[in-house]
């Protein structure tokens, strides 16, 4: 399987600027054509670009996001999406501003899997949601 790299950007309002997220994704690097962006609230995952993105992703692809709150704002729904993507769909996720949330070694490294799960279960990971 091919490790295609995708990026996801979310801004809540038209006034918010996505430039910082876009620069970070390009520096990863994520190809420009694989960056998806929504301009809407993160209250749920009913977002057009996010749905299109997740429809394209296959096992062993990589999803890169700038920070966990760009994925969403609802703690329970973020955990559910994380589980679906990583455990059911076998997609890796990289959160750029939180290096502990990088699942690329999860299948090969039990410690890495444990650390990611531990960080996600920690309320401090989501204090700004």
Instruction: Assign the CATH topology.
Output: Rossmann fold
- N-to-C CA distance: 35 Å
CATH superfamily: Resolvase, N-terminal catalytic domain
Order of helices and strands: EHEHEHHEH
CATH level-1 class: Alpha Beta
Secondary structure: number of strands: 4
Oligomer: single chain
Approximately how much helix is present in the residues? 25-40%
Query: How much is the radius of gyration in Å?
Result: 14 Å
Helical segment count: 5
Strand proportion:
15-25%
The residue ranges in which pLDDT falls below 50 over 5 or more consecutive positions are none
By secondary-structure content and strand pairing, the structural class works out as alpha/beta
- The total domain count is 1
Question: Mean pLDDT across all residues, rounded?
Answer: 87
Q: If classified by CATH, what would the architecture be? A: 3-Layer(aba) Sandwich
The best one-word shape is globular
The largest β sheet comes out as:
4 strands, parallel
Record the strand order, biggest sheet: 2-1-3-4
Description:
- This protein is of the alpha/beta class.
- It has one domain: Rossmann fold.
- It has helices spanning 19-27, 48-56, 68-71, 75-88, 110-121; strands at residues 5-11, 35-39, 62-65, 92-95.
- Strand 1, helix 1 (19-27) and strand 2 form a beta-alpha-beta unit.
- The longest helix has 14 residues, at 75-88.
- The protein is globular.
Brief account:
It contains five helices and four strands; from the N terminus they run E-H-E-H-E-H-H-E-H. With 129 residues, the protein is α/β, with parallel strands linked by helices. The protein has one domain: Resolvase, N-terminal catalytic domain (Rossmann fold).
């Amino acid at each position: 399987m091919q490790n295609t790299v995708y990026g996801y950007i979310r801004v809540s309002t038209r006034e918010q600027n996505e430039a910082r997220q876009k620069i970070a994704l390009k520096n990863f690097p994520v190809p420009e054509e694989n960056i998806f962006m929504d301009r809407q609230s993160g209250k749920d995952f009913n977002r057009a670009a996010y749905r299109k993105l997740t429809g394209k992703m296959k096992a062993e692809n990589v999803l890169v996001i700038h920070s966990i709150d760009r994925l969403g704002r609802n703690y329970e729904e973020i955990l559910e999406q994380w589980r679906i993507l990583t455990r059911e769909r076998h997609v890796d996720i990289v959160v750029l501003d939180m290096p502990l949330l990088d699942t690329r070694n999860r299948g090969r490294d039990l410690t890495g899997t444990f650390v990611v799960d531990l960080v996600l279960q920690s309320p401090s990971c989501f204090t700004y949601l």
